[in-house]
Design brief:
The protein is α/β, with parallel strands linked by helices. It folds into two domains: 2-173 and 358-375, Rossmann fold (3-Layer(aba) Sandwich); 183-356, Glycogen Phosphorylase B (Rossmann fold, 3-Layer(aba) Sandwich), CATH 3.40.50.2000. The chain contains 14 helices and 13 strands. It has helices spanning 18-33, 69-87, 115-118, 125-141, 150-160, 183-194, 212-226, 243-251, 266-275, 290-297, 310-314, 326-338, 340-353, 359-375; strands at 2-6, 38-43, 57-61, 91-94, 107-111, 144-147, 167-169, 199-203, 231-235, 258-262, 278-281, 302-305, 319-321. The strands form two sheets. A seven-stranded parallel β-sheet has the order 3-2-1-4-5-6-7, sandwiched between helices. Helix 7 runs parallel beside helix 8 and helix 7 packs across helix 12 (326-338). The longest helix is centred in the first third of the chain and has 19 residues, at 69-87. Residues 18-176 form the Glycosyltransferase subfamily 4-like N-terminal domain. This is Glycosyltransferase family 1 protein. Keywords: Transferase.
Amino acid sequence: MHIAVNTRFLLPGGQLEGIGRFTFETLKQLVAAHPEHTFHLLFDRAFDARYLTGPNVVPHVLLPSARHPFLWVAWFEGAVALWLRRHRPAVFLSPDGYTTLATRVPRVTVFHDLAFEHFPEHMSGLEHRYYQFFAPRFARASAQLVAVSEATRQDLVRTYGVAPGKTRVAGNAADAHFQPQPPAVQTATRERYAAGKPYFLFVGALHPRKNLTNLLRAFDAFKQRTGAATKLLIVGRTAWKAGPMFDVYQQLQFRHDVHLTGRVTEEELVQLYAAAHATVYVPLLEGFGIPIIEAQACASPVLTSDCSSMPEVAGGAALLADPHDAGAITNALVRLHQEPALRASLIEKGLQNVQRYSWQHSAEVLWEAVLAAVKE
């Protein structure tokens, strides 16, 4: 069987973010588990050889590079559709929520979230119009849909009216190198990033949905209330519409205790999780929320939002707060500061919770979806 896979999020160089990581890890499992089948990887630019994980992988570069709504249309409805028409694979697997309408090849599409439906103000008007037109059509045209959480699966059914029977759940996972670190490593990490002081840690791209404005306000109130030496580290790249976050940052009374590190290496990220007093991740909406389980795998207590997928992913092993209420976030930070028994309990439960997720299991779910799509 020949299987075409949209791999445009497997970017050359640098680190893979959420969708790229999901694509790479699940595809690596599929390639290894099914050597009798050929996987055709469709890139939109030059690619790294590290993505060719088996002899049954064949790469193809289709232009133009799809990084803008007009180019998304040109790539999916033009280049990809033409390739599918010429080569007629058994199925087209798309792990990033996009697919093509211009094909009769059965499609399996992975949806990570429907944030564009619930927070259209967080993107440009042109991007929103693209999603508004194409996303529901992608969902209905696909033979099988895979969501990264039950919350996202329910959102697909509720928002687009897709049949529950053609949807499955394949979550993300924490890679094996996310694990607790020795006390000496934790001490050195705190010295390097927080002048030896305890710190709360946020990990993620800096854009409105991540709710950093409320997190910053909550941290400032925490400092005022407790007088603690604790700092806040914000780890991640600056994404779109981050201006309001920087405006709030400039107004903070305890701005000098907030450190924006930018992106860090995978090794540094593991160390930062492991040495954190707690990981604080309170977005307005998440399709999954990988930092939750990465932090838990590194024995970091977690505070996360009480909405969308986050309670599901946290598995009863995190402190929850309303992300719209900065006061509620402040109260949770105070508890993490004042209650060592709570932190210890969250660490123990978190280490157990991450065992629920594995890339192998998620790849098996994808394979079930592929087989079901081929049979239709």
